[in-house]
Amino acid sequence: VDVERVLRTRMESAPHDLDAGMRRVGVLLGLEKNDLAMELALRLSEHAPNDLRVRLAMAAAVAIGGSPQEGLTMLESVVGSTDTRFAPVWYAIGSRLLGQSKNAAVFLERAISLDPQMYEAWLALAAAYLEAGIVDKAEPALHKVISLKPSCTSAWVGLAILVLNQGRRVEAIRLLEAATQADDQSEILRFYGRLHLIGGTLSEALQSLHKSIQLNPGNTRAHLTYAEALFIGGRIGEATDEVVATVNYVMADDADALRRVFRAVLKAAPQNCSSFLNPVLETFHHHQKAVIAKRALTLATLSFLKEWESAVGDESDSLIMVLEDIATRYPD
Question: Are the C-beta atoms of 174 and 151 separated by less than 8 Å?
Answer without folding.
Answer: no
